[in-house]
Write a structure and sequence with these properties.
heterodimer; A: about 850 residues; 5-stranded parallel beta sheet; B: about 120 residues; 10 strands
């Protein structure tokens, strides 16, 4: 007990003169708890306080319920005010006592249990209610929300069954509930309506990483999941999604959000909108009644995170104590996920914008992602994943609006390094001892590398790889090896010899392709994280390239990303200068029929197609088709047996032929037949750039095979295979790859050649440029001389074709990507009606 | 106040636009392209590149920019301004997202029609 002193004696005297006012508090959550703490500090003797708590217990830290659920904490450890606190401050606490009526005229509140208490000042802090999704079965036993200790206890009992739980909602609460239930031994699935988890607090990259971490704990995550019903007879048994999926569930947790609990205030005639409307002093429309916490609405905003709620509590306490200078101002809030082992922090505004800049740090090995958003040299948003140690420091900079221009270069490294002299990475490498290991994969130390550089007069990264194997496996030490080249060679080393793919990365095309395989990267977001991309979603240069590399590397495994394809490949037609499209159906080997020509004529008339033209690849081009007509045009062409000619694709275009032995008096082989066979085998394949073939029936070469990417010249003794021709920007005659005897062998060699090009070619690099870069001899060796290699290449190509040969037109006629072909809204109709 | 409210019309759900994609709103004075970014922001701009009138809605969306499909001009979705060194800009239209729905300001449309 405190010793009495002069000042408290004075206070006693004052309070004797002025009788205590009566303060009644409805609700015993964190906000009113904090308000009372503050009030007792400012004016300890001003009020007689009575609290009504609907829950049968004292005030506890609601945001620590998740550690209770996961078993890491007990209820006693999260109590804020124990019974002693109420005794000490002379507070009357009615536990388990819901207030049902406020009579503002009589200035009394009455509880369900019939207790009526008069007040001079009233605080309404009724909090919020979890949202119950209006779906069938939401009232079955076993369907719970996640709000208070009762919910947690119910979940812990249900978890003893070790059965299946479904958590609806992949936000903060839902994920914490899922992790807790999983720790309690349940088999948990999280359903989330949006494409990424916690989309309100995290950008898509962090959301993606979070999903992986959650899944790594054995929790199944289904995004874009639209819950349709909860099934069961009395007790819940399963959850059904809109797509028909059924997930068994003995426990269902709804964690899709909260809504302010304002009914009591509304019944009392206070102004209520979404929440109880208060001014910046936390007063409601009745100046003797305050509202605070999640039930209060201020400037059309309601709050759910603890920081603004505590600020409300401080403001209300100040006014109750007679200080009327306090005003509530919403400040930035920070979010942390309380799941052990997952470190996640987000604060402020992290959307992209023209006037904003971002600093991104990715460390794939450590699983770290940090993104800072800057505006006018001030930090306005931060997302930290994996390493959140500096969260508080960033949040402080953000709230203070500190000018960070002096710290900028090293800002992202946190307070220990920010503002310091940027480290010279070369100096650090130079300081390493000779026996320091550089390449962990191959066990190569520094001395061996520098020795090779000087001894063998090596000048490039590729040289070092070839002679020492350093950085030739996973590639993560590439930067170190480059620095060693720099240290050893000084000014004569020119690292810019490696052309980066684009401004989003320092890596070249070959490096990226190698790492896709080495690190088994199977999606563009994965790749951007693992290879530490400098932008959050790439650019129009790297995205189509990455999409191709994924398609070519992981046949059947990779989900094609349409939004990373150029428009022509996205809608399977060629965009023209006026925004219309041209349509070219496939004519196998250049052959057509009366039926096909009739269908084309009908389509041209039916859709008023303004121009029809023969292409250089022996097919017919319909120009000027309106985008919304494309599916209908394709449907008619499909009906006549025609499929997409892929005249738009970085992929197989045409196989041009002459008439060969069928008709020609000089023909030596069936060039048309071979052309058709080749086209039927190769169609649908994606390649680094367009791929054009031709087959000529004799050396007179009427099909112009010697200026194609791949050409065949038939001769009496068999087939001469050519490659590397061009007749466009550059004009170049083909080189002879070699001579084979049979049609089957021709097809095998050409498929192997195509596959090697698919595997080695850089995006947009035509065959002739690829051949020049890697050397014709190396190509010839692999696809012609080494029959085992040839067979392996052929097999990889054939496997990939299994997944690529479906007509994109037919797929879209049957409804795929329907959004591409119709406007979201036609206002011309509305405007005409006006 | 009621007139103010009527100025915003619901043109559809944000989810009706693919992430990093665009859809069109047809109007009497030409098409408006409505974009959705990787971070679920949405923007409405004139569907006509300042360079040669290319349909911006058909371009590749990256960050808060789109690359025109005809000649690779990069246009800011926020300001409508072309990235340096290209010079030019397209009109932008007020658009907001409310409960997952896209609301386009038609008062700005009327102004566009009057100008057209």
């Amino acid at each position: 007990m405190k010793k009495p002193n002069g000042s408290s004696h004075m206070k006693l005297a004052v309070s004797n003169l002025k009788p205590k006012q009566r303060l009644v508090v409805v609700g015993n959550g964190m906000a009113p708890g904090r308000a009372l703490d503050k009030l007792f500090e400012l004016a300890p003797d001003a009020y007689d306080v009575t609290i009504f708590n609907a829950e049968p217990r004292v005030n506890y830290d609601r945001i620590m319920l998740s550690p209770v659920l996961s078993g890491e904490k007990s209820f006693e450890q999260i109590v804020i005010h124990g019974d002693g606190w109420y005794v000490k401050h002379g507070v009357t606490l009615y536990k388990g006592c819901t207030v049902t009526d406020i009579d503002r005229k009589a200035k009394t509140v009455t509880s369900a249990t019939g207790i009526t208490v008069p007040y001079d000042k009233l605080i309404v802090a009724t909090g919020s209610q979890p949202i119950i999704i209006p779906i069938p079965g939401n009232n079955l036993a076993g369907v719970l929300t996640y709000r208070d200790l009762d919910d947690v206890q119910a979940m812990m009992i249900a978890a003893k069954s070790r059965g299946n739980a479904v958590v609806i909602g992949g936000g903060l609460l839902g994920l914490e509930a899922a992790a807790g239930l999983s720790d309690q031994g349940m088999n948990v699935t999280v359903l989330h309506l949006m494409p990424t988890l916690m989309e309100r607090q995290l950008d898509t990259t962090a959301g993606h990483l979070l999903q992986k971490a959650i899944e790594a704990r054995g929790i199944r995550v289904i995004t874009k999941a639209n819950t349709k019903a909860i099934l069961g007879n009395k007790r819940c048994e399963a959850v059904e999604l809109a797509d028909g999926t059924r997930l068994p569930a003995e426990l269902v947790i709804m964690a899709v959000g909260i809504r302010p609990n304002a009914q009591l205030a509304k019944d009392a005639g206070l102004t209520v909108n979404r929440g109880i409307v208060v001014d910046a002093t936390m007063r409601t429309s009745d100046s003797d009644v305050f509202a605070l916490g999640e039930c209060a609405e201020i400037e059309a905003q309601v709050f759910g995170l603890v920081a603004p709620l505590y600020e409300m509590a401080n403001v209300a306490a100040g006014h109750l104590a007679g200080e009327d200078t306090h005003r509530f101002a919403a400040s930035a809030t920070a979010t942390k996920l309380k799941v052990t082992g997952i470190n996640l922090f987000s604060a402020g505004d992290f959307a992209e914008g023209k006037d904003r800049e971002e600093i991104v740090l990715r460390d794939a090995t450590r699983g770290v992602y940090k993104r800072l958003v800057l505006k006018d040299n001030r930090l306005i948003g931060a997302v930290l994943y994996g390493d959140t140690g500096d969260g508080a420091w960033f949040f402080d900079l953000l709230k203070r609006g500190t000018d960070i221009s002096q710290l900028r270069e090293t800002l992202i490294f946190g307070p220990s390094f920010a503002g310091g002299v940027p480290l010279d990475p070369t100096a650090a490498v130079a300081a390493l001892p000779d026996d320091a290991e550089i390449c962990g994969c191959n066990g190569i130390c520094k001395g061996k590398i520098t020795g090779a550089i000087t001894g063998l007069k090596l000048t490039s990264l590729d040289d070092v790889r070839a002679h020492t194997k350093a950085s030739a496996s996973c590639g993560s030490c590439t930067g170190l090896v480059e620095q060693l080249l720099k240290v050893t060679l000084g000014g004569s080393y020119n690292p810019s010899a490696i052309q980066p793919m684009c401004g989003c990365t320092g890596l070249g095309h070959d490096e990226v392709r190698r790492l896709i395989v080495a690190k088994s990267l199977k999606s563009i977001p994965d790749l951007m994280q693992a290879l530490e991309w400098k932008t959050s979603c790439g650019c129009a240069k790297c995205r189509p390239a990455l999409n191709y590399y994924m398609v070519a590397t992981w046949p059947g495994d990779y989900a094609d990303d349409g939004q990373s394809r150029f428009i022509n490949e996205r809608v399977h037609a060629n965009i023209q200068k006026d925004g219309t499209y041209s349509v070219v159906p496939r004519m196998w080997g250049g052959m057509t029929s009366a039926k096909e020509l009739r269908a084309i004529a009908d389509v041209v008339e039916k859709f008023n197609i303004p121009a029809v033209k023969c292409t250089g690849g022996q097919r017919i081009d319909m120009l000027g088709v309106k985008k919304e007509d494309l599916p209908a045009v394709w449907a008619d062409l499909n009906n006549a047996g025609m499929v997409s000619g892929a005249a738009y694709a970085k992929g197989l275009r045409t196989v041009k032929t002459c008439v060969g032995t069928d008709w020609c008096r000089f023909g030596t082989q069936d060039s048309t037949g071979l052309g058709v066979k080749l086209e039927k085998f190769l169609w649908g394949s994606w390649t680094p750039a367009k791929l054009k073939l031709a087959v000529s029936g004799c050396p007179r070469n009427c099909a112009e095979a010697t200026c194609k990417d791949i050409g065949v010249i038939c001769i009496d003794s068999g087939y001469e295979i050519h490659f590397g021709g061009a007749a466009g920007l550059d004009i170049k005659g083909t080189e002879v790859l070699g001579h084979v005897k049979t049609e089957d062998e021709t097809i095998e060699v050409i498929a192997a050649l195509t596959q090697l090009y698919r595997e080695q070619g850089r995006y947009l690099e035509r065959v002739y440029k690829w051949a020049k870069r890697v050397g014709s001899d190396s190509i010839r060796k692999q696809v012609l001389d080494d029959t085992a290699k040839r067979k392996a290449l052929y097999d990889r190509f054939a496997l990939s074709q299994k997944f690529s040969q479906s007509d994109p037109w037919a797929e879209r006629v049957s409804g795929l990507d329907a959004h591409e072909f119709a406007p979201i809204m036609d206002l011309t109709i509305r405007e005409a009606a006006e | 106040m009621s007139i103010m409210k009527a100025d915003w019309i619901d043109i559809g759900a944000l989810d009706a636009i693919p992430v990093r994609g665009a859809r069109l709103v047809k109007t009497a004075a030409g098409c408006i392209a409505v974009f959705r970014t990787a971070h679920d922001q949405a923007y409405a701009i004139e569907d006509s590149c300042p360079h040669k009138g290319g349909p911006l809605s058909q371009g590749i969306v990256h960050g808060t920019s789109v690359t025109c499909p005809l000649h690779n001009w990069v246009i800011s979705l926020e300001s409508g301004v072309a990235q340096e060194a290209d010079k030019g800009s397209v009109r932008t239209f007020p658009l907001k997202i409310n409960d997952g729905r896209l609301l386009l300001n038609v008062a700005a449309l009327a102004a566009k029609r009057a100008a057209a």
